[in-house]
Amino acid sequence: MARQLDEQIAGRFPVGRRLRVLDVGMGRGAQALRLARLGHQVTGVEQDATMIAAAREAVAREPEGIRERVRLVQGDGRDTGVHFLPGSFDVVLCHAVLMYVEEPDPLVAGLARMLAPGGLLSLLVRNGDALAMRPGLSGDWAGALAAFDTTAYRNRLGRDVRADRLAALTATLDGIAAPLHAWYGVRVFTDTAADDAAMPDDLETLLAVEERAGRTDPYRGVAALLHLCGVRG
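Structure tokens predicted for Methyltransferase domain-containing protein:
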């Protein structure tokens, strides 16, 4: 996903430009720190106290030049309008958050308002059109059969969450003046790997395969996750 995001940023903004990035639901800050290391000014928003504490610790371990490019805000991603003015950011990230939001459209609309004209909105969501893949590939035939007709599922943390369908999110982005510019699949072949699986010796080859599949039909359509990139008009 990071490679996909970098591709979109490189294709939209001049090389060397320091971008204003908002990362909503930043978790432990891996993506925010990666972008800060690349020279961008990053603001991270996270509601969970444990997660934002871990992010603060991670930022504190960075050199001063990187630390000063990162701002952390504890808050709900649905309240971005309380903290920031419309049009304040060039790039807005919302990765692995919408599955925890019962009504995602207001959140996505609020994120789009944070973008300057021409800004990039990056969403990472659970693929509602491929929910049967994980149980099916695991031999859970009853679970696979049930997954065809729903966008609800139980994640690896044991939480009941929801998925998004590509067509519905495309319509949402059109309706908020940030139409879909590009989309990718994420975790096409690796979704059934165990969380504690050892790092493979041929990691670069694995990543090359996933990157190729994530931009190629029909593979991307059955990925566990979808990475959607909209552009503010």
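The domain at 1-232 is CATH 3.40.50.150 (Rossmann fold).
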